[in-house]
């Protein structure tokens, strides 16, 4: 049996046009040994963040938290019901530095199988099925771990059709990722989402990546350590003027407790409170329509697939 084209949310598959305004890359729950003391674990804080996003018109949040990093999959459906915000969960694997050696050793030889099971059967015993696969590259390079995880992601994609979302370290390595996923491993570019391109505002690389047909995510605004916010509208404008406005996505990428709006940070609401109106104002005549597409139409096309199975 094959379902109609739909986005797989934690509450079930929904038509792409029902996503509403979408935060295409964020985290409700996340815990890494690389961020001690800043884990996203609080259910009340996650609920408050979603409610604040919804108050500004937000309709869907895509959580890129992958395997082993505190996804709290069973807690996602209640949060979606309570706040009215749709949530998409992820399977996949982050960079090796985020895991203990024993965790990675336990996945050897079965990584693609784990991804497929979480996409089609559910994450752990939660019954919540993932809607995308998240993997990661390195700084200007792809190490053996990245190649292993991306190979497994490609295998899972070919089995399920699920999109693959890629963390680009500081926004670098986009073309290497496309060479591997789309060249060597045969994943259609339209099924690949490249994340963090705002962190490396190289307009030439952006255009080359967009020309492949993949989706480009500008996510994690307002981070002082990246200092590239002011260049993002120019990058979006350049891509739109080059005919790639239908490939663009925007996300908040909240990864620490201090960054949440409920703790005094920008959080999820910042995306709609500041980024959306700034883009609409700075992009001239194309601004309002482009912003509408980036927040509503493009995420649906990036995430919707023909899911097989019941």
What proportion of the residues is helical, as a percent range? Answer: 25-40%
CATH classification, class level: Alpha Beta
How much β-strand is present in the residues? 15-25%
**Widest sheet, order of strands:** 6-7-8-9-10-11
Please give the radius of gyration in angstroms: 18 Å
Q: Report the CATH topology name.
A: TIM Barrel
DSSP summary: helix tally: 10
Q: What is the distance, rounded to the nearest whole angstrom, between the alpha carbons of the first and last residues?
A: 7 Å
Bulk shape: globular
CATH superfamily: Metal-dependent hydrolases
Following the backbone from N to C, one meets helices and strands in this order, namely EEEHEHEEHHEHEHEHEHEHHE
Q: How would you classify the helix and strand content by structural class?
A: alpha/beta
> What is the residue-mean pLDDT, rounded to a whole number?
94
Number of domains: 1
Low-confidence stretches: none
State the major sheet: 6 strands, parallel
CATH architecture: Alpha-Beta Barrel
How many beta-strand runs?
Answer: 12
Would you write up a description of this structure?
- The modification N6-carboxylysine is found at residue 134.
- This is Phosphotriesterase.
- InterPro entries: Metal_Hydrolase (IPR032466), Phosphotriesterase (IPR001559).
- Keywords: Hydrolase, Metal-binding.
- The protein is an alpha/beta fold and 310 residues long.
- The protein has helices at residues 43-55, 76-83, 101-105, 111-120, 144-160, 174-184, 203-211, 232-241, 269-282, 287-303, and strands at 2-9, 12-14, 21-26, 58-63, 86-88, 90-92, 132-136, 164-167, 192-195, 215-219, 248-251, 305-308.
- The protein has a single domain, classed as Metal-dependent hydrolases (TIM Barrel).
- It contains ten helices and twelve strands.
- The strands form three sheets. The protein has a six-stranded parallel beta sheet. A three-stranded antiparallel beta sheet has the order 2-1-12, with helices on one face. A three-stranded parallel beta sheet has the order 3-4-5.
- Helix 8 links the parallel strand 10 (215-219) and strand 11 (248-251).
- It is globular.
- The termini are close together.
């Amino acid at each position: 049996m094959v379902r109609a084209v739909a986005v797989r949310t934690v509450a079930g598959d929904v038509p792409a046009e029902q996503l509403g305004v979408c935060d295409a890359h964020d985290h409700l729950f996340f815990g890494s040994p690389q961020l001690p003391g800043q884990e996203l674990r609080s259910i009340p804080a996650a609920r408050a963040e979603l409610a604040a996003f919804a108050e500004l018109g937000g309709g869907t949040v895509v959580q890129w938290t992958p395997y082993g990093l505190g996804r709290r999959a069973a807690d996602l459906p209640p949060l979606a019901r309570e706040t009215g915000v749709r949530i998409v969960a992820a399977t996949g694997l982050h960079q090796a530095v985020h895991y203990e050696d024993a965790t990675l050793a336990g996945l050897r030889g079965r990584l693609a199988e784990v991804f497929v099971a979480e996409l089609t059967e559910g994450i752990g015993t939660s019954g919540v099925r993932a809607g995308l696969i998240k993997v990661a590259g390195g700084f200007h390079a792809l190490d053996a771990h990245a190649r292993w995880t991306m190979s497994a992601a490609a295998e899972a994609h070919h089995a399920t059709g699920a999109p693959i979302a890629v963390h680009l370290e500081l926004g670098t390595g986009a073309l290497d990722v496309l060479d591997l996923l789309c060249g060597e491993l045969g994943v259609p570019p339209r099924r690949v989402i490249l994340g963090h391109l705002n962190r490396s505002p190289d307009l030439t690389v952006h255009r080359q990546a967009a020309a492949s047909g993949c989706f480009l995510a500008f996510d994690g605004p307002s981070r002082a350590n990246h200092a590239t916010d002011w260049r993002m509208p120019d990058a979006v404008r350049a891509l739109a003027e080059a005919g790639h406005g239908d490939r663009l996505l925007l996300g908040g990428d909240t990864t620490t407790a201090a960054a949440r709006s409920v703790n005094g940070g920008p959080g999820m609401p910042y995306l709609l409170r500041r980024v959306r109106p700034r883009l609409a104002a700075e992009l001239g005549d194309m601004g309002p329509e482009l912003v509408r597409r980036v927040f509503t139409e493009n995420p649906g096309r990036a995430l919707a697939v023909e899911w097989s199975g019941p």
